[in-house]
Amino acid sequence: MNAIKYPKSFSHIGITVPDIHKAVKFYEDIMGWYVIMKPSTVKKEKETAIGQMCIDVFGEAWETFEIAHMSTSDGIGIELFSFPHGIKEEPEFNPFNTGLFHFCIQDPDIENLTKKIVENGGKQRMPIREYYPNEKPYKMVYVEDPFGIVFEIYTHSYELTYSSGAYQE
């Protein structure tokens, strides 16, 4: 079979948080993401498609969870989950192990967004850095939300940032 090769688009990311209402408020107020489905409860049952899908994904060892759906300005979905019996502590930061390390958002006002994140319970993990000091205005920083989820902020698009060879001398 000859498949046409093309880059697949990014649809959404699922994030587990300790308190879905606080997470929705943080991401709506600080990140400006749109709420497209307010927090709701999903119960384990086999009578609906969503109930069966959740059993397929999570197995039988759950009874209920909360879910909310949000969207970025460019239509990328943010699916928030909160499980009542899940660990509510910040995840351990370990980028060296296999698995999701971080996600990245883009905002040209990186300084103000970073400040708002910190003022609202998050953390700044490093100084804001420039990829091309005194040459191009491409900046980045790693931060955490109030729940310990690590993400990165870029001032410019991924393509612009790396098309000039950010790691070349």
UniProtKB/TrEMBL annotation:
GO biological process, alphabetically ordered: L-methylmalonyl-CoA metabolic process
The organism's place on the tree of life at top rank: Bacteria
Gene3D superfamilies: 2,3-Dihydroxybiphenyl 1,2-Dioxygenase, domain 1
Transmembrane segments: none
Keyword Metal-binding: yes
The keyword Metal-binding is annotated on this UniProt entry: yes
SUPFAM superfamilies on file: Glyoxalase/Bleomycin resistance protein/Dihydroxybiphenyl dioxygenase
Keywords: Metal-binding
A molecular function GO annotation: metal ion binding
Cross-referenced InterPro entries: Glyas_Bleomycin-R_OHBP_Dase (IPR029068), Glyas_Fos-R_dOase_dom (IPR004360), Lactoylglutathione_lyase (IPR019883), MMCE/EMCE_epimerase (IPR051785), VOC_core (IPR037523)
Segments forming domain VOC: 9-156
PROSITE patterns on file: VOC
Name of this chain's protein: Glyoxalase
Source organism of the structure: Algibacter mikhailovii
